[in-house]
Structures are given as structure tokens and as C-alpha cells.
């Protein structure tokens, strides 16, 4: 279905991050959720092409297919910065807002994920500190070819990745493994769709760093220090 023909509420449920676009543009995806996007844009006097482009850019995030195992460190690092560091900041800011709204409106329900907003805020704080360490210390070292000197920072980053994994476990506990309850409103649905995208992104982010960048597989021109006796 063409985006312009889709109800705004359906887009909010199906395209993670779209609620941030709607909020910025003043489009109502809750009470006005049944309104087709094209009509909503017309009623607000917005630019159709610009609005659709912003929404389509969100769906493009999931269309990756590159094999990063042979890419140079610098190329992989730039990808991590643009695809994950920048996106996580956008995601968490919006997810905290959505979770706070759900708790505010539905906090009396026994299936409401009470405490989720605070947990996401804690995750955002920890992840921000982690990403800044990478951006300011580790990544510049790797880009400069100083892999031998990066052993300590890499060890710290791996440990913090384990902490992020534990935080995701608690997120699953708070949301009943991201299971939507019956009668969930559009905001609740948008929240869980966004959470699923964030979880998938964070896991892929950690995979690219732990299993490719930190292992040195992204720099094929760097000679191995292994003597070969181990069979590796």
C-alpha cells in the first residue's frame, strides 16, 4: 500500500521512529490514527514529498545487506557511527517519551510496563557514555592503525556490551517479551514496534563490534600475529 493511503495510526505501529516524525510535524496518530497520511498532510498544509521522504528513510534502515567482514576498520567504524550510534540516540529519546506516555495513561492496568520509561532512560545514559568512549578513544585509535594499543579499551567495551545485554533481558521482563496486551492503543503499539527495532539494532551493533571490528577481521591488510601452531 502507498504510504499516503495508509492510516497514520497504522504507520505509527509499523514503522519504528515514525512517531517522532509525526510529533515534529504535529500529526495526530492517536485520536486521528484512522486518517490516511495523505489527507492528514493536506489538512496540516505540510509538504507531501518531504514528509514521505522522512518516513521512507526510516524503512531504509532495515534494508542492509553488506558483508562487513572484509571491510577496512575505517569504513566499518563510519557505518557504526552513522547506522547505530546516531540512530540509537534518536530511538531512545523517542522510546522514553512513548513509554512515559503509556505509563501515564495506562499505569493502573496490571499489564502496563511500569518502570519501562526509567529503565530506558537508564539504558540511554549508559549507552551514551559507552558510545562516547568509542567515539573519543577507541575508534580514533583503530582508525589510526593502533590496534595493539587498543587491547585495553576493547576489553572494557566488551564488558559494557555484556551490561547492555543484561539491560535487554530486563527490558524483556518489563514488557513480557514485547508481547502487546489486548486493546493496546496506538501509542503502546508504536512503543513496542520501536522497542523491537531498537533491540534488533543494538544486537546487530554489538555483533559487528564484538565479532568483526574487535577481532580485527575488518582489516584484512593487517598481518596476523599468530604463528599458526594453534591451527587458527
Automatic annotation (TrEMBL):
Species of provenance: Simiduia agarivorans (strain DSM 21679 / JCM 13881 / BCRC 17597 / SA1)
Domain of life of the organism encoding this protein: Bacteria
Keyword Metal-binding: yes
Xref: Pfam families: Hemerythrin, ScdA_N
Keyword Cell inner membrane part of the UniProt annotation: no
Compartments where found: Cytoplasm
Protein name (record): Iron-sulfur cluster repair di-iron protein
Alphabetical list of InterPro entries matching this protein: Hemerythrin-like, RIC_family
Gene Ontology CC: cytoplasm
Listed CDD domains: Hr-like (cd12108)
GO terms assigned for molecular function: metal ion binding
Keywords: Cytoplasm, Iron, Metal-binding
Annotated PANTHER family: IRON-SULFUR CLUSTER REPAIR PROTEIN YTFE
Native organism taxonomy: Bacteria, Pseudomonadati, Pseudomonadota, Gammaproteobacteria, Cellvibrionales
Gene3D superfamilies in the record: nmb1532 protein domain like
Coiled-coil features, chain-numbered ranges: none
Domain Hemerythrin-like: 77-214
Amino acid at each position: 500500500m502507498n504510504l499516503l493511503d495508509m492510516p497514520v495510526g497504522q504507520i505509527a505501529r509499523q514503522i519504528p521512529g515514525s512517531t517522532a516524525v509525526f510529533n515534529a510535524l504535529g500529526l495526530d496518530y492517536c485520536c486521528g490514527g484512522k486518517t490516511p497520511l495523505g489527507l492528514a498532510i493536506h489538512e496540516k498544509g505540510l509538504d507531501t514529498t518531504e514528509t514521505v521522504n522522512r518516513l521512507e528513510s526510516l524503512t531504509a534502515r532495515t534494508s542492509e545487506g553488506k558483508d562487513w567482514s572484509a571491510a577496512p576498520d575505517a569504513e566499518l567504524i563510519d557505518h557504526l557511527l552513522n547506522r547505530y550510534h546516531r540512530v540509537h540516540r534518536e530511538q531512545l529519546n523517542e522510546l522514553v517519551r512513548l513509554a512515559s506516555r503509556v505509563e501515564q495513561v495506562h499505569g493502573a492496568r496490571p499489564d502496563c510496563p511500569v518502570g519501562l520509561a526509567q529503565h530506558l532512560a537508564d539504558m540511554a545514559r549508559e549507552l551514551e557514555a559507552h558510545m562516547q568512549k568509542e567515539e573519543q578513544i577507541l575508534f580514533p585509535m583503530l582508525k589510526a592503525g593502533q590496534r595493539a594499543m587498543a587491547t585495553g579499551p576493547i576489553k572494557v567495551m566488551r564488558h559494557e556490551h555484556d551490561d547492555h545485554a543484561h539491560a535487554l533481558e530486563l527490558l524483556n521482563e518489563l514488557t513480557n517479551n514485547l508481547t502487546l496486551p489486548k486493546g493496546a492503543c496506538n501509542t503502546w503499539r508504536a512503543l513496542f514496534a520501536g522497542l523491537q527495532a531498537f533491540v534488533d539494532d543494538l544486537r546487530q551493533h554489538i555483533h559487528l563490534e564484538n565479532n568483526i571490528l574487535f577481532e580485527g577481521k575488518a582489516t584484512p591488510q593487517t598481518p596476523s600475529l599468530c604463528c599458526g601452531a594453534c591451527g587458527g
